[in-house]
Design a protein that fits this description.
Length: 170
Amino acid sequence: MRFANGYDQCSLSREFVDYLFGEMDPTILVHQLNNGHFGSNEVLFATLHNTDELNAPGGFSHICLDPSKQPYDSRANHITRLTNWIDGEKCISKIFRNNICIYGVEDINRLIKLPHLFANKIMPEADFVALTCLYEKLFNMTYIKQDHNKKLDEKFYKNLATVRGFTSPL
């Protein structure tokens, strides 16, 4: 088994989750990771999800981890969680925690246009207004149907490497 590094947060297909908890027993790997001999908590799901030998339904592939072998233009390496590291793009708020930029109210309009599912980090103790504005924007988009002209870019999501196995590329 080749280890893959990832995040604690991940997006998994229903087929993979059913396989993981219904047919597979990852107990030994979990114990090895907990012992600290093979990796950390950021390795478990990434390794299971990317191990070709498991032939897991809804799984991923180590081949897809190589950017030179991806036949699509991706606007995000990871769509589950957007993170602005201290050495990455400019941090408008100039507030950091664990070398990660804390997003502020100035970032809200940009964040809602990105394809990521979550933004890491928005903290009420750093900028409560940012969190309030984001909640209001999401509420309005969901219940009041503001921005009704803005359509979800289904083509982008359907052509992600983690999804392409379930749908034909557009």
